């Protein structure tokens, strides 16, 4: 294989540096003349055939693209690891255990107002979705979990969510919650 001439090398450089596919006229504008461009493009197309990059023509435009069989190597699955706030975790748990649930119901369970952004973050993560409207005055929007939520947390269904005994065994209950529960049990056992 003979090395390419200067015109072919120049066309190769122009196409490689271009941010968008170029027509023969646009390539000619860079070179200052149109002569020999078509032949150089055919030569480059032949030279690049079977390599990691290919020179392709789409309509009247030419550009380099990754060989189709190698495109999978360029994909990057990037996980954006952001920590969920305590309010986000509490809101997600309430939705998962009580779905479909309205914002007012979430606020009643949590005892504080839910920031607008909290539910938005859960929706952006793909864990929560709008689930319709409650048939009460004002028709508030209800929220439910998504299949993405189940997938992320390795659950086959909502029935696989841990129960109170599972949470206690894992040490995930707050000591204050345990003390309140113990107090309630003791009061039930007292005789009046």
Defining key terms:
3-stranded antiparallel β-sheet; alpha+beta; Arc Repressor Mutant, subunit A; 2 domains; 5 strands; 192 residues; two-stranded antiparallel ribbon; 13% strand
Notes on the structure:
- By secondary structure, the chain is of the alpha+beta class.
- The protein folds into 2 domains: 6-68, Winged helix-like DNA-binding domain superfamily/Winged helix DNA-binding domain (Arc Repressor Mutant, subunit A, Orthogonal Bundle); 86-165, Arc Repressor Mutant, subunit A (Orthogonal Bundle), CATH 1.10.10.10.
- The protein contains 10 helices and 5 strands.
- The chain has helices at 6-17, 24-31, 37-48, 71-74, 86-98, 103-110, 116-124, 147-152, 164-169, 175-189; strands at residues 53-58, 61-66, 101-102, 128-133, 141-145.
- The strands form 2 sheets. Strands 3-5-4 form a 3-stranded antiparallel sheet.
- Strand 4 (128-133) and strand 5 (141-145) form a beta hairpin.
- Helix 1 (6-17) packs across helix 3 (37-48) and helix 5 packs across helix 7.
CATH homology group of the largest domain: Winged helix-like DNA-binding domain superfamily/Winged helix DNA-binding domain
The major β-sheet equals: 3 strands, antiparallel
Net shape: elongated
CATH architecture annotation name of the largest domain:
Orthogonal Bundle
Total domain modules: 2
Topology, number of strands: 5
Strand content: 5-15%
Give the averaged pLDDT, no decimals: 83
Keywords: Cell cycle, Cell division, Chromosome partition, Cytoplasm
InterPro entries: ScpB_csome_segregation, WH-like_DNA-bd_sf, WH_DNA-bd_sf
Protein name: SMC-Scp complex subunit ScpB
């Amino acid at each position: 294989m003979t090395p390419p001439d200067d015109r072919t090398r120049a066309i190769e450089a122009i196409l490689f540096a271009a941010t968008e596919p170029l027509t023969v006229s646009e390539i000619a504008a860079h070179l200052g003349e149109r002569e020999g461009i078509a032949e150089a493009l055919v030569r480059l197309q032949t030279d690049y055939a079977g390599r990691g990059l290919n020179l392709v023509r789409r309509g009247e435009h030419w550009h380099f693209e990754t060989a189709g069989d190698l495109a999978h190597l360029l994909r990057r699955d990037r996980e954006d690891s952001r920590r969920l706030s305590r309010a986000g975790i509490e809101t997600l748990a309430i939705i998962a255990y009580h779905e479909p649930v309205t914002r007012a119901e979430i606020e009643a369970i949590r005892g504080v107002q839910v920031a607008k952004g909290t539910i938005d973050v859960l929706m952006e993560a793909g864990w929560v979705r709008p689930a319709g409207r409650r048939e009460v005055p004002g028709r508030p929007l209800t929220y439910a979990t998504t299949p993405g939520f189940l997938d992320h947390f390795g659950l086959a269904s909502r029935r696989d969510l841990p129960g109170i005994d599972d949470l206690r065994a894992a040490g995930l209950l707050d000591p204050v919650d345990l003390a309140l529960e113990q107090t309630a049990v003791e009061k039930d056992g007292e005789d009046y």
